[in-house]
Hints:
The structure holds two protein chains of two kinds. Helix content of chain A is about 0%, strand content about 55%. Chain A has strands at about 5, 10-15, 20-25, 30-40, 40-50, 55, 65-70, 75-80, 90-95, 105, 110-115. By secondary structure, chain A is mostly beta strands. The mean pLDDT of chain A is about 95. In chain A, strand 5 and strand 6 (about 55) form a beta hairpin. Chain B contains no helices and twelve strands. Chain B has strands at about 5, 10-15, 20, 25, 30-40, 45-50, 60, 65-70, 75-80, 90-95, 105, 110-115. Chain B is globular and about 45 Å long. Classes of the chains: A mainly beta, B mainly beta.
Amino acid sequence: DAGVIQSPRHEVTEMGQEVTLRCKPISGHDYLFWYRQTMMRGLELLIYFNNNVPIDDSGMPEDRFSAKMPNASFSTLKIQPSEPRDSAVYFCASSLRGRPFHNEQFFGPGTRLTVL
Amino acid sequence: AQTVTQSQPEMSVQEAETVTLSCTYDTSESNYYLFWYKQPPSRQMILVIRQEAYKQQNATENRFSVNFQKAAKSFSLKISDSQLGDTAMYFCAFMKHDSGNQFYFGTGTSLTVIP
């Protein structure tokens, strides 16, 4: 398996623009997580899905953020409108409950977002 | 709520020496999982080692081992024979057994291996 795939790897946009981050989890995994990492706040869980259903979105900072998982192999995180304080690295991770991985989360390479 | 504390923001170690990174957590759960993840400058998050709380034996993975003290709610990571490639941020994470696979991460420890 290719692992968790995220696109784009880097995104530079201007304030007010819409940004869409994409994630393809590992095939067969039933959980998908979106994280944001900044120097100030560390690694924050934004939202996670189980079997394509959002379970906990309490980490989503504002209504400007939204996430979807239309099927088991694809998820998006959208920011509209974007602001400079949204600049961060966004990670997607997936996991499979139980054995053999014992719930280990596999992370994608991250998307570095810069909002000017 | 579960909290994970890594009290050492930065650490350094000489190459080939041994270093221990500390992690404590707060929970009322009796069954859970603990993980150490490594994030090198490439930013990729990589699992280093995992521990299941019901197992008394400390987990080991080559040069990496843990000291799991359940009563003290402590989960430290020991790196033996440190190598330059061990330079990275290290995150401790907690997961309840009966949960939505949600991790609670610590704030990380930045480890530098000095040649």
